[in-house]
Design a protein that fits this description.
This protein is α+β, with helices and mostly antiparallel strands and 311 residues long. Helix content is 43%, strand content 15%. The strands form 3 sheets. It has a 5-stranded mixed sheet with strand order 2-4-5-6-7, sandwiched between helices. Strands 1-3 form a two-stranded antiparallel ribbon. Helix 2 packs across helix 7.
């Protein structure tokens, strides 16, 4: 059974709170590890309330996408002759209680919807030119078909300065079943407050450092349960140190060859090595002339340096 909750009367806070209650289309790729900006662990931390979702509404790319959504929809209608309408609702399907859909548009007279995208990414533009589309956008469209029961979903893309593209994604029951299973498993982790597996992405690291920003004074823990991770950390740290040394050696060879030249080129490479100046605040000199700076003018911060030592 399909149900809807209108968004037209919601405040921004209410809208954000409703999104956290289940998995949305933009979440699908993240929980599968296919979102370049958010990891499954970071998504889990948001859905459980361990961290507050970042407010990206004022970011230029997000604002452009929102403001140009209607234009992209009109371009799609112009290119295809199809009519589309806004869908100002959270859509729920009783078969998938862990999910919701917030489609950009629904196509009039078809069991289909439309996702509108804008991008300035060269990688995404190249995919569109080749008749393909990013995996995270595909996951979003499959999610919407899963929740709404639509038989197809259209994807319209405006690549800034390079063209307009649109694609048709047909319903694939095997894909929908696989996505539903993954989302159901993820949501069980949310309900049980049992963390999902971590990865090495910046999003995961940021979420971990946010959740456990402060250490407990004097607290210790037995790390036998992650001894293999300690071994792997040490292995790759040693390789990273070796790689950095080799990189520094190569840089020294290049720099000694360039001497005082600002630029250098050869087939496949371009090198710049220009003098740059920057101004820094000389605290000692200032205080010698004007006295100590009052403590209220200093901004305090804390951190948890991570160190692994072999013994």
């Amino acid at each position: 059974m399909i149900t809807r909750i209108a968004t037209s009367c919601m405040t921004k806070e209410q809208w954000n709170a409703e999104r956290l209650k289940s998995i949305g289309g933009s979440d699908a790729a993240a929980l599968l590890g296919l979102n370049p900006y958010k990891s499954a662990f970071a998504l889990w931390a948001e859905k459980t309330g361990e961290i507050k979702p970042e407010d990206i509404s004022d970011k230029e790319a997000v604002r452009l996408g929102h403001d140009l959504e209607d234009y992209v929809a009109k371009r799609f209608a112009e290119a295809t002759g199809k009519k589309v309408r806004r869908e100002n609702f959270f859509i729920y399907n009783s078969e998938f209680p862990f999910a919701h859909a917030l489609p950009d548009r629904m196509v009039v007279g078809e069991a289909a919807g439309l996702e509108c995208k804008t991008t300035s990414s060269w990688e995404r533009l190249k995919l569109c030119r080749d008749g393909e589309y990013p995996k995270d956008w595909y996951c979003q469209c499959v999610h919407y078909m899963m929740v709404t029961g639509a038989q197809k979903w259209y994807l319209a893309v405006l690549c800034f300065g390079h063209g307009f593209y649109y694609f048709t994604i047909e319903r694939d029951e095997d894909e929908i079943r696989a996505l539903a299973d993954a989302e159901r498993d993820f949501w069980q982790h949310v309900q049980d407050r049992q963390p999902v597996a971590v990865d090495g992405s910046e999003a995961t690291a940021e979420a971990i450092h946010t959740i456990w920003a402060d250490s407990s004074d004097g607290k210790g823990v037995d790390l036998s349960g992650v001894s293999s991770a300690l071994q792997e950390y040490s292995y790759w740290k040693d390789r990273a140190d070796e790689a950095k040394q080799r990189q520094n050696e190569a840089a020294a060879q290049i720099q000694s060859y360039m001497m005082d030249a600002e630029r250098g080129t050869c087939e496949g490479y371009r090198v710049t090595w220009k003098t740059q100046e920057r101004a820094t605040f000389d605290r000692k000199k200032y205080e010698a002339a004007h006295g100590a700076i009052p403590p209220e003018y200093f901004k305090k911060s804390s951190s948890r340096p991570f160190k692994v030592t072999t013994v």
